[in-house]
From TrEMBL, chain A:
InterPro entries: PCRF, Pep_chain_release_fac_I, Pep_chain_release_fac_I_sf, Prokaryotic/Mito_RF. Transmembrane segments: none annotated. It comes from Drosophila rhopaloa. Belongs to the prokaryotic/mitochondrial release factor family. The keyword RNA-binding does not apply. The keyword Transferase does not apply. Residues 247-263 form the Prokaryotic-type class I peptide chain release factors domain. It comes from the Eukaryota. PROSITE patterns: RF_PROK_I. This is Prokaryotic-type class I peptide chain release factors domain-containing protein.
From TrEMBL, chain B:
It comes from Drosophila rhopaloa (Fruit fly). The gene is LOC108047281. This is peptide chain release factor N(5)-glutamine methyltransferase. The keyword Nucleotide-binding does not apply. Residues 117-237 form the Methyltransferase small domain. GO terms for biological process: methylation. The keyword Ribonucleoprotein does not apply. Keywords: Methyltransferase, S-adenosyl-L-methionine, Transferase.
Amino acid sequence: MLTRKLLNLRLGHLARRWTSTDPLSIQNEKLQAYLESLRQEYYAVRVNAAGNSKSYARLAQLEGVVSALEQRRVLERHITSAKDMELEKDEDMRQLMQEENEVYVDLLGKQDQTLLQELLTLSDDEVYTALIFGLNAGAGGQEAMLFAQELYDMYTGFFEHMGWEWEEFASESTDIGGLRHASLMVTGEDAFRWLRYEAGVHRVQRVPATEKSGRMHTSTASITVIPRPADIQVHIAEKDLKIETKRASGAGGQHVNTTDSAVRIVHLPTGLAVEAQSERSQLKNRELAMKRLRSRLVQQQLESTEASKMATKKAQQGSLNRNEKIRTYNFVQDRITDHRVQGGTLHNLDGFLKGGEQLSGLIEKLQLEHRKERLKGLLETWQPPKEAIKKN
Amino acid sequence: MLRQLPRSLRMTSRLRTQVNYATNSPTGQSQIPVTRALEIGRWAEKLKAAGIEDTEFNLKCIVSHVLKQKFNSVPDSFAQLKFNPGQLADFERFLEARCARMPLQHIVGEWDFMDITLKTSPSVFIPRPETEEFMRLVIEDHKNAKSVDLLEVGCGSGAMSLSMLHSLPQVEATAIERSKAATVLAAENAKMLGLLDRFRVHNHTMEEDKYLPEELKDQKYDLIISNPPYVKTEEFQFLHPEVVVYENLNALDGGSDGLRVARLVFDLACRHLRPGGKLWLELGNDHPPLVKTIMNLKYEGRLKFVASYSDQYKRERFVQIEKV
């Protein structure tokens, strides 16, 4: 008896969902029509695809949604309707039907989640394979710079966690271990789709290490995420380089034992000069200096190309306002609050600042919100094609 | 006088608060800021007076060694660093030694060579920055080879062979070395770097008709590398104090024209290189043209001079020779 009651409750809930007005519920009529139109588009494209790479790309995009939709329909068919249930006289049989229904309703719920997930992925648009990740200490002096360094460690940890390549091409740190600013280039298929939600002002509230009277401070650091256009290439010719070390003259080799490690490289065509002395090995310093030079040249090109200006503009319109305060790190209460999502409060700051699962979990949440918004917008403006209506 | 007294009192009290602040360290021992230790000892001046260039780099090496931190993790400004009394004593002892021109690499007990860090030991030759450049060329030349049997003549600390083994997995290396201390050090370094399975070092002195140890006498190699002693006898008076006093002169003495040992290596290469195999040598300033002449006159049909290369200081110092 109890199970039947529970089941009734659940079915009742399902019935209510049939009349749902939530635009992102699978039961919503418009969404259903939209899904059907995607399915029809999929088959139409598949028939005519023959050798057209654009068509294949579209097919690959649609495949997930369509197969999820079809699986869902199969499941739906397995559920015995209430009417059939009433017609069934045998009590045992009816019991069985209900048990079966229970399983299928459960499966259907899961399938709906999958379908929604696929649909949401479809609503992503921009694809950039690389981006420029900027980190700037904001208000709060030394403390803000210390916080910027912590964010730097968190994000570089996160890049590693996600398996993205990254390279630093400019940074300025302070003596007490803080960071004024840093620019990193991050390369990875989906890096932009994840990191775009991190752009904005991050706020820290704590008693700084530099504070003697134990007062709590609020400081900020800001993050910019700019997609990098794909066409930037830097070629450095050996003959364009002037490589200098401290030791300019005198005997070399076995005759002397100088620890000549600092290197300075001048790029003659642009006049750019870079130095490296953080390693004991001269060769390592030279590699480091070359890397810096390359990055500086990339940066120079980036700043000059019209394409990147356009991309930047677009990225800023597409994502959130750069000057918005997006997240608070409160050390006193050991919590992180993201101001853009419901239930965006997490605990365990130390774990979060490692840039692993916790951060990716939060970004996933933000991603989902963003995709839902996009899908809602899409559905609002979407009109069912004429033929589809006729067929129905 | 009296008016000055309160001021000096105030100064000492300020000094005291500073010291108090420093003792608030977690270890509970009194600590001294590194910058202060430098000022008191006037070490920068002393190093300069001792004829050491690049004092900042020397200081940073020693500071990082004393604090047991990696060199590249120590900030250029020492403002945040502190010594405890033990470290301060070490610091001063090391700097005294440096002022007496003990090589920096011996003081810190290890040195970086390309991508690897090697232990150093008194009496074993310390690899130079140019040798990194030399090895870069050799590695570049062999990076696409399927497998390389490498022989190094006079490996010292093992820097050349080990850096090559470290960057190319297809290389197997054998080395000979006349100094016992260096033989032990090279094996130690190989073990430390986890390269012992591809590195064999033999304590052997190369002589005419006994170029390699008995067990290797029929071995052939794809590549022979060497940085043989090449300092001419007449040049010994111009060597740096670090070199004359602290380094094993056996590793430097190349006879009257600096090629005494190199000539032995030529003969060794004739016997132990496979046809098409390479001999790479790092030599002194005016040696490559001389080597070219020697090849043409004495080794025709056996060895062929391929090319010479300049180091980063634009000195023609490296030669590539091929077995015919």
